[in-house]
User: Fold this.
Amino acid sequence: MAVRQQTAAARVQPPITERVTVLAWLKHNLFSTWYNSLLTILVGYLLYLVLVPFFRWAVLDATIAGDSKAACSFGGACWTLVKVRLGQYVYGLYPEDQRWRVNLALVIAALAMVPLFLERFRHRLTYAVGLVVIYPIVGYALFYGGWMGLPVVETSRWGGLFLTLVIAGVGITASLPLGILLALGRRSEMPVIRSLCVAFIELVRGVPLVTILFMASVMLPLFLPAGVNFDKLMRALVGVALFSAAYMAEVIRGGLQAIPKGQYEAAMALGLGYWQMTGLVILPQALRMVIPGIVNTFIGLFKDTSLVTIIGLFDLLGMAKLIVTDPQWLGLAAESYIFAAFGFWIFCFAMSRYSQHVERRLSAGERR
Assistant:
């Protein structure tokens, strides 16, 4: 009886956890063998040679005071350029007295997306669809103007981080549903639908985005009737969305093929139709499985927005190039490009971390 009681008491005790010290972690991960130790020392030395001079140039010897290149000290980074031209990095050539419209539209977007992150919020899908339909109209009305006394700001003056977010936002929002439809069409049993989807996906994936943007900007107007023309930014948005949708379709198709056949059979046994089975059973599982691939496509799309420079639109990187062509700031290309690269990294890293959070939350029931 005593032995049985001791056994039961041992079962309810918390598991024994090993306390890993810093030295133990270093020994296990960096100095486990002699060649790992040598590689660690070599990599550390190379990082020392690169990071220490960069830190001295970018931080210790850098200058941010003043309002001209003459105020910068020799030998360090001149962040005065970023401080003086920060408005152009963010808004491009958008009129300074109208930039509140961009800020207002971004605030509205942030507030409108808050319900999507509330776990107890019902009808999330319906709200998201309504937001995707309504917000572009509100945003374009604020950005472009021409109503209620707002002056018109041509899309050719949009630029900087603002333009990058517009192109990436439209491309991401449009490419996901289009990619889902293309992936379903490629797996369709109807030969015409399947052939059209396969032809579109393979054609778009077979050419670079630069070619699509060039065709949309230069060649397309040649085939339109006289007097008919589309805004250059609109053509770029359509090209980016279709290009990303082709890659998104292949990512989602991989998730659809990974679903066991038993899931389809179980859904059909319940009497579910094709769209009910796809929307309630198949797609939720497939999308959850390919979250890393979807976010990877989004990140690639966000960085590819810099290619719109070839058609005369200046996103964050394009504006960084344009600013250093000013004779007053010649020779400061490194500071301008580093700032643009940091801006791209912030958004790409945020998307990556949020995708990992979503992936962990959706797979919580599968972890042991």
DSSP finds 16 helices and one strand in the chain.
